[in-house]
Structures are given as C-alpha cells and as structure tokens.
UniProtKB/TrEMBL annotation:
Basic residues composition-biased segments: 239-248
InterPro entries linked: Glutamyl_endopeptidase, Peptidase_S1_PA, Peptidase_S1_PA_chymotrypsin, Trypsin_dom, TRYPSIN_HIS
Protein name per Swiss-Prot or TrEMBL: Inactive serine protease 35
Chain intervals with Basic and acidic residues compositional bias: 219-238
Pfam families membership: Trypsin
Peptidase S1 domain segment(s): 141-181
Segments of this protein annotated with the region Disordered: 193-248
Family named by the database record: Belongs to the peptidase S1 family.
Signal peptide: 1-20
Localization (cell): Secreted
Key words of the record: Glycoprotein, Secreted, Serine protease homolog, Signal
SUPFAM superfamilies from the UniProt entry: Trypsin-like serine proteases
Length: 424
C-alpha cells in the first residue's frame, strides 16, 4: 500500500479540528443553557376544612435560629413520607376560611433528589460590602418594563414576583410566622407598579416571551447597570474596588405608583410550620398568592438549576421594595458565596422589605441563541443562622432555592395539575 496522499491527510486534519471545535462550542453552550429536568408529579390526596386562623402574628424584620447550610449537613435526608408531609399545604381564602391539603409525590428519582449538599467550604458574614451596591430604579421608563415590572409589593411589607398572569411567589414568613398568619393577611393585597395617569401596557404575555417593547425598557437598564458595576471591579464577589461610581441616581421623570389588587387565596407548604420539618424549616420559606384579577404585565417563569456557583458568571439578580427607599424599586446582582440543594448564601446588599423577591438568572434556551430569565429562588432575607448546631449564630443573606420538587408543587398551585410542567 502506497503513502497516503497529502490532500487526504489535510482533509482529515481539517475535519478533526472542526469536530473538536464543534464539540467545545457545544460544551460551552451547555454551560450557558438552561438544563432540562424531568420533574416529579404532585397530586392531591384530600382536602379538609380547618378552623379560621387567629391572624395574630406580627411581621418579622429578620429571622433568627435558622438551621442553615452547615447545620443541615448533620441532619438525615428526609424520606418520601417526610417530603409528602412537608409539601402538603394550607390554603387561606380571602373570606378568612382555611383548608389543609395532603399530597402524594410520584416519579421521584435520583435526578430529582440532588446530592445532600453541594456547598463550598467558604463562608462570609453578611454586611454591606463597602459602598452600598443597590440600584434604585425610579424612572417609569424602566421600572414598569420587563424584567423589573414582574416585581410586586406585598401589603404585609414584603416583595414578591409574578410567576403567572395572576400568581405571585413570595416568602412564607411574609404571610405566616410559623405559628399563625400575620394580621394583614385577612385583607392581603399586592401592589404592581403602573405609570401614573395611564393604563400599563404589555398584556398578560407568556413568561418566556422577552420580545418587543420590553427590550427598550428594563432589560437595557439591567444590562447597563451590570456593565458599569463591572468597571474596575477587583473580584467576582461584589467586594472589589471600583465601587466609587454607584448608580443610585435615576431620573424621576414621572415616578410610577402602585395599583393594588386583592389576593383571592394563599398557599403555604406545611414544611414552613413550626414542629413539622424541624431543622429544614428554612427550606420551605415560600408561598404563592393567587390574585383576584390578573394585572396586565408580563411575568417570569420559574426554573431549576443544579448549581449556581458552577455557572460561568455565577451571578444572581433580584429586585424588591427595600424599606429604606420607600416607593422605589431596588435592583441588585451579586455572586453566591455558598449553596446547598435548598439554600443559597449570597453577597447581595438588601434591607427589610426586599424579602420575598424572586431571585433569577439568565441562561440560553436549549438549542437556541436566545437568553431567558427564570426565577430560581426566593430571597428569604437577612437571617441569624445556626452554624454548628451549638447555638452559635452568624448573620447571612439567605435565599430558598427552587428544587424539582418545589417546582412541581408551585406548578400544581398555579395550574392545578403538575403534569403540565413535567420538564423544568
């Protein structure tokens, strides 16, 4: 057999390079794309009436005694029966009545049950890292446009995020203190920012649709803030130099006002209630509010991500209504310092009032070049966390992650059938 012709060797070399480059691009693309998960089914077993709540609890500025990431490492993994008990839920209605619904979980598997802890060993006490890194979004040109327009104010003093045309995701402690419902829940309302003197535009939309006029509004502002924040930054944790220029300014060219809508019903997982999930209570600090009328603004889909720290950027974003800037929407983004399968510790500066905000990230849709935001957690707030189970506490900013099971439960609350959301 004679020598292989040079043109064949060149062709093979070129093909090898093309395959290698394509494989690398595909790998990088996968890093930046939303993973697809087969999520379990949550089904109702039965619903029974309960006595009406006392509505005697008071809002909590910050939580304490939370069994956090370090504390939870020593706890046994919950069984299927435990999970079904934690995900069973109470519903409180606008007329003050209450029911309890027990659920069953189907299709649970190893993919759904993430590793018990994926956290790193680093821990950082919560503080304002140098200059306050929050941005006030006061201009109606931005605050009433996507993604900022998905943020809402809860009448009990918290924030929330629209996850369907008429459903709001927020923190459970904004509604219930673990023993009873807050006094304001009897007449619970949700405030949506609207331009003064005119009706808001935008229509109900479908959560993943980030097209049209929204690109000229909040999305551009969000990206501009992020770019300017990065100038001269010393590290990726939100503490580096380059903090001297802080975009707290915003042109108040017609500040928007709140349009308030009554809440029809509120649903909270039993895992949040005292004595039910014990050390795992913090994992269930979320609730869904169903509005009586759907506001004509876009909402944001929820999503599931196995690790945020392993993402190329590793950043989270959220907007809420911090108490120290009354009437204004406050946006921030930052890195995650530590994560477990249910909780996040992060560096975002925040004040009371921002609890319940939807924590989101941006990734590409699978097989597409289009980027999409999804809610991957709920900001629980500034908490005093039990670090070693010995009573020693440290303060952190904590967020509750959306896991496949929580995704299925929230989908069930929103649609009445979690089979409509079999792929996260």
């Amino acid at each position: 057999m004679g020598p292989i012709p040079l043109y064949i060797l060149l062709l093979v070399t070129v093909l090898t390079v093309v395959v290698a480059v394509t494989t690398e691009e595909s790998r990088v693309d996968d890093q930046y794309s939303w993973p697809q998960w087969k999520v379990p089914l949550v089904r109702k077993r039965r619903t029974v009436p309960l006595s009406s709540p006392n509505f005697s609890a008071h809002p909590q500025q910050e939580l304490s005694g939370t069994c956090g990431i370090e504390c939870q490492r020593r706890l046994p993994s919950p069984s299927l029966n435990d999970l079904e008990q934690f995900l069973s839920y109470e519903t409180v209605y606008e007329n003050g009545t209450r029911t309890y619904t027990s659920i069953s979980v189907h299709g649970l598997n190893e993919v759904t049950m993430w590793s018990k802890n994926t956290s790193s060993s680093s821990r950082h006490k919560r503080e304002l890292y140098g200059t306050d890194t929050r941005f006030t979004i006061a201009d109606k040109q931005y605050s009433t446009k996507y993604p900022f327009s998905t943020s809402v104010k809860i009448s009990t003093g918290c924030s929330g995020v629209l996850v369907s045309p008429k459903h709001v995701l927020t923190a459970a402690h904004c509604i219930h203190d673990g023993k009873d419902y807050l006094g304001g829940v009897q007449k619970l309302r949700v405030g949506i920012l609207k331009e003064k003197g005119r009706r808001g535009k935008g229509g109900k939309g479908r959560g993943g649709n980030e097209k049209g006029k929204r690109r000229k509004g909040g999305k551009g502002k969000e990206e501009a803030l992020e770019k300017e924040e990065n100038v001269g930054k010393g590290d990726s944790k939100g503490r580096g130099k380059g903090k001297k220029i802080r975009i707290r300014r915003s042109v108040d060219s017609g500040k928007p006002s709140f349009k308030w809508t009554r809440v029809k019903q509120t649903q909270i997982p039993k895992g949040w209630f005292k004595g039910v999930s014990n050390g795992l209570t913090a994992d269930y600090d979320y609730a869904v509010l169903e509005l009586k009328r759907a506001p004509k603004v876009n909402y944001m889909d929820i999503g599931v991500i196995p690790s945020i720290k392993k993402l190329p950027a590793g950043r989270i974003h959220f907007s809420g209504f911090d108490d120290d800037r009354p009437g204004n929407l406050v946006y921030r983004f930052c890195s995650v310092s530590e994560e477990s399968k249910d909780l996040l510790y992060q560096y975002c500066d925040a004040k009371p009032g921002s609890s319940g905000s939807g924590v989101y990230i941006r990734l590409k849709e699978p097989g597409k070049k289009k980027w999409k935001r999804k809610i991957i957690g709920v900001f629980s707030g500034h908490q005093w966390v039990d670090v070693n189970g010995d009573g020693m506490q440290q303060d952190y900013n904590v967020a509750v992650r959306i896991t496949p099971l929580k995704y299925a439960q929230i989908c069930y609350w929103v649609h009445g059938d979690s089979s409509e959301c079999q792929v996260a």
